[in-house]
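Let us practice reading a record.
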Amino acid sequence: MKREYEQIREKVFSMQEEILAGIADCVNIDSVKGEEEPGAPYGKGPKAALDYALSLGEKLGLKSANVDDRAGYVEIGDGEEMVAALGHLDVVPVGDLSEWVSPPFEATIRDGKMYGRGVLDDKGATIGAFYGLKILKELGLPIKRRIRVIFGTDEENGSSCVQHYVSSGQEIPVMGFTPDAEYPLIYFEKGITHATVGKKGLSQGPIEVLSFAGGVAQNVVPKDCKLVLKGEQKAILKHLAGKEGVTAKLEDGNTVIEAVGKNAHGSTPQLGVNAITRLLLAMEEEDIRAIGGDFQTVATCIREKVGSETNGESLQVHFLDEETGETTVNLGIVSFTEEEVYFTLDIRFPKNGSHADVTKALEALEEPYGLSVLRKGESKMLYVPQDSELVQKLMGVYRDMTGRDDKPMAIGGGTYAKEFPNMVAFGPCFEGDEDVIHAPNEGVSVERLILSIAISTAALYELAQ
């Protein structure tokens, strides 16, 4: 291990109690997004976390700056160029409090782990980086570039905080990383298209659809789907009898069909079982024609263009790249109301795909099915070549400080790194760590958290050379 890395590691571990206390003070702030108020565009909680971080930076002797109450940064050094770590201080809601062993906004250490909402995502790594800057300053290690820790307060709801940082003319780092994912390093993140496909209004066919709904989010494989048809539909009830994962029964004089699947993240739909497609594929074609109307249109489109596939072949959006993987498609939500009939698609593609190709394929649904793209959102892909200076430096630090020879990863998910050019996701989770991000009892091993802070500090030092 490099002598400088050894110095950094020893200093970080010697300051463990102080670092944990600083993280705990931030975790104890309920920074879930709230109602906009004067001076608090994302609500009181995120603003309180921002104020805490700025005051901590000043306490640690770091240059601190508030970016319009949406983001902030702390910094050391005097070079013309700047490198950065990018984190966030807002958190997702805690959910059912009864599932938490200890209060989510009271950081608790038990059995060698620190618990609390945000301790892993992303307050632990972000506040830890503040102490990393203090340590580099105290050690007096020579750096040629300034080092900045940039922190936003709206990452969990679209990253408008860092988008504002950019649009307001703040300095862009020449390279950097976000400690908001996993080790060893993520050099590629797929491009993502979120599309809502359907039509305005609801046209009924011979059999009236009283309700048809499934899914909770466009980026989650739906676990439940329910179709309610008016009256007793004997043929449909007969055809669905005994179908796996599907129940059909007469209830209050109407035909009720329910399908149960298995949740998975939209970036890995192959790991789940889609309840919407399970229901529609279980039905006979003659049943779908008998129902008619918009139900027939949507059901036929989904059966023909999505079906049981998760790679987008039938939809004509299948791209395969040896380095960065293949397309994934998740059918997330289906909804029938008097105002609108629609379903959502989460489409993620490797580096040989494009948003233009995906848009063309979606627009091609209009002629055969009469369905159009009602709403669409796009997230650009991230690709930093594995032989780049950034990737090589970060991987060198990781290997030197862990003794491991893991390879950089390409993923279907998206991180904060997309907000800046020449930035990747780097830590703080290690292979084998329990996936508790956004879950009850979010927690992290204290030893691994401190090691991660040592790695990120050494990485910032290396990038500043």
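A brief commentary: The radius of gyration is 25 Å.
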